[in-house]
Design brief:
14 helices, about 0% strand
Length: about 350
């Protein structure tokens, strides 16, 4: 085996593995939701291509995360139990849930989607009760302004991704499990909404009453909107599934009202986040370099396109089509730019470093 200390490239790879962001599955989340949005809008070739790309990305990231946990357990679990980085691991749950939905919607593969759904559920249980119990009992805790950011809402996204994939799975199977899956989807939808209220109150308080620098405005703050967008998507699917379950039919006014509430809240965040981005990058001239966290900004754009399309279908509005397509193209452009930045950083610049240019 090559000694990394005598091989600069091997040393760089080891360092990259040790420093790997817990939020890297944001790549799977962003690619998956844009693939699903493309499928909704009948861009089937694009949707299928991004599906296969996402399968390969997911497999590679699973291997890398396993290697990091095996070779650098102190770093791997240290990040998990740190307030600012721990919630990033919920991207693994959300990415798995979204990939499960891709299998079921794009490929019609309920078996593959069901296996991934079970895996996402197990991950959700392990991470939710490991991370939040640890945060609760740890004796040394950061202050609010140093311990919370928009990345905490990834816990909401992970929860709602299970609601979405459960609703999709329920729509594709017969009894005896259809009722139970719809009830589970409803329960996760409600729990995700409650979790958003708790966390968003703290994040908004941190916004308003503590100093806020350009460095503090990390891309995961776009999850403020993305968490509401995926909640809208889950609610829309529950509305569409109402004929399958009498208890959903009895809750239709509630489901419709809260789904529009989620969509309106997510929509409110968009101008706010755009203005803050202008303040960060234009006024404060914060450098725009590739960071895995930028997938946390691409995902909400794609999710907003998907959820708006699904809301339009579920509510039979018919007047949100243009908005849906506009955000789809914006999300696709953002995904393309971020993916190009990732390739440039990981391949081109590393190659130049290897050959000494």
């Amino acid at each position: 085996m090559t000694n990394a200390s005598n091989n600069p490239e091997a040393a760089r790879l080891e360092t990259g593995l040790a420093d790997m962001s817990p939020a890297n599955f944001g790549l799977v989340m962003a690619t998956g939701i844009i693939s699903l949005a493309a499928f909704m809008m009948k861009f089937e070739t694009l949707a299928t291509g991004m599906f296969y790309l996402n399968v390969s990305q997911y497999g590679l990231l699973c291997v890398l995360y396993f290697l990091r946990a095996w070779r650098y357990p102190a770093r791997f679990f240290g990040d998990m139990f740190t307030h600012l980085t721990g919630p990033g691991y919920f991207t693994a749950v959300a990415g798995t849930g979204i990939l499960a939905s891709q299998f079921m919607i794009i490929r019609g593969d309920l078996v593959g989607g069901g296996v991934l759904w079970v895996f996402a559920l197990v991950l959700w249980l392990l991470l939710t009760y490991t991370i939040f119990v640890t945060f609760t009992i740890t004796p040394r805790k950061p202050s609010l302004d140093r311990g919370i950011n928009g990345g905490w809402l990834l816990a909401v996204v992970a929860t709602q991704s299970l609601s979405v994939s459960s609703a999709v799975l329920a729509a594709g199977i017969d009894q005896p499990y259809r009722l139970e899956l719809n009830f589970f989807a409803l329960s996760m939808w409600l729990w995700g909404g409650m979790l958003y209220i708790w966390m968003m109150a703290l994040i908004f308080y941190r916004y308003i009453f503590f100093n806020f620098s350009p460095a503090d405005l990390a891309p995961p703050y776009w999850i403020n909107m993305g968490a509401m967008a995926i909640s809208t998507l889950a609610g829309s699917l529950l509305i569409l599934n109402a004929p399958q379950a009498s208890y959903l039919a009895s809750l239709l006014p509630f489901l419709k009202g809260f789904t529009i509430f989620y969509w309106a809240t997510g929509t409110w965040w968009i101008p706010m986040l755009l203005l803050l981005a202008i303040w960060r990058y234009v006024y404060k001239r914060f450098p725009l370099n590739y960071d895995p966290l930028y997938w946390g900004a691409v995902f909400p754009l794609g999710m907003y396109a998907a959820c708006t399309w699904q809301l339009d279908q579920a509510m039979e509005f018919g007047f949100l089509t243009q908005l849906t397509h506009a955000f789809f193209y914006i999300a696709l452009a953002a995904w393309t730019a971020t993916f190009a930045g990732m390739l440039y950083t990981r391949v081109y610049r590393r190659g130049r470093a290897v050959i000494g240019k």
